[in-house]
Amino acid sequence: MTALTLTRAPGRRWSLPLAWAVLAPILVAAAAPELLAAVSPIATDPVNALLPPGAGHWFGTDQLGRDLFTRVVHGARPSLLLGLGATVLAVAAGALLGLAAALGGRAADQVVTRVLDILLSLPQLLLALLVITVLGGGVANVVLAIAVAFTPGYARIVRAEALVVRRSGYVEAAKGLGLGRPALIARHILPNAVGPLLVLATVGFGTALIAGSGLSFLGFGVQPPDPEWGAMLAEGRDFLATAWWIGLFPGAAITATVIAVNVLGRAAQRRFTRRTS
């Protein structure tokens, strides 16, 4: 056990700084892309189309002569907002459904649990596609579709945590002191039931980002010529043999972001587990 800990420690020691080193410029690109790339991401230059990466164009140019570095930088904001918006909605909806199932009585628990079981039986991406089929494409509908697909998992976690917290000693003591049900939920049950969910949502954000990019790749999200990593991947699939860089760099941005977020999320999860244990 000691040897295993010693072999893992150096990797964990360097993983967090590396994750922040990767994520920091991506966050800057999302918050203020003009600081990193002042050129318009939709400006075309057919004379310089399909140029490979070089000094003039760090990531090369696409089939319309647009600078790929600029497009990757400006594509960070819509790509991250797709994942972030879907995660926030899923966490909020999951918390409400989980609390309703745990605290609403046996009938409410049975109804909510059965609905969640049905939704969880479907792959998340397939469920998101079903929602988009009903609602149609567009950025708002993509965010809503991903949120619907991710809500059941969060709801099950909140339900399980709320059931444990509801039977805990300090909640029973608060009841004995005459604390009302709304105050009991707000002060004791909600914070302790949702706490683990917020940590898991950090990891879930990476999955939501992949789902958002995948739906944009299929043409349901951000539409050309606006830059978004998934949509840029879709544009590059027709040039893999002749201009590999068009698809490489958006894909690398998605991969790097997801790995960095997962590393930070896992670290937060380990810290939360140690604190609660």
From TrEMBL:
GO terms for biological process: transmembrane transport. Keywords: Cell membrane, Membrane, Transmembrane, Transmembrane helix, Transport. Residues 76-265 form the ABC transmembrane type-1 domain. It comes from the Bacteria. It is a multi-pass membrane protein. It is found in: Cell membrane. The keyword Amino-acid biosynthesis does not apply. InterPro entries: BP-dependent_transpt_permease, MetI-like, MetI-like_sf. GO terms for cellular component: plasma membrane. The chain crosses the membrane at residues 80-103, 138-157, 197-222, 242-265. This is Peptide ABC transporter permease. It comes from Acrocarpospora macrocephala. The lineage of its organism: Bacteria, Bacillati, Actinomycetota, Actinomycetes, Streptosporangiales.
